[in-house]
Design brief:
The protein is mainly alpha-helical. Helix content is about 70%, strand content about 5%. The chain has a domain at about 1-55: Multidrug-efflux Transporter Regulator, Chain: A, Domain 2 (Orthogonal Bundle). The protein has a two-stranded antiparallel ribbon.
Length: about 120
Amino acid sequence: MYIGELSKKTGVSVKAIRHYEDIALIKSPQRDGKYRVYDDSYIQVLGMIKAAKGLGFTLEELRTIAKAKTQEGLVPMDLLKAELQKKRTDILVKKAELEKRLEEMDELEISVQHYNQCLLENINQ
């Protein structure tokens, strides 16, 4: 399939696919004259890239993983697991920060309610 069809099937823009090739995130496909010809494996690879980006991976992080592939093209699972664990840790830190903010919001609400109650009591005296 040509790049336009691959783009439609994956939801990844033609520009992004070319960029991924330029930075060696994906291998350059076979060519038919001046046209790039992609096989179905690119659909899966681009799907994994989209999923990883959605999880917060940068293209540089993905390139590091891609560069570590074996001669057979296998992704080293130990490296992938280590990178996923880093992302999990990042997410847990962010989660804790967000939970703290929620607590602070609750405290602010209580403080404003208390303030308003004190004002009303002073007015009614």
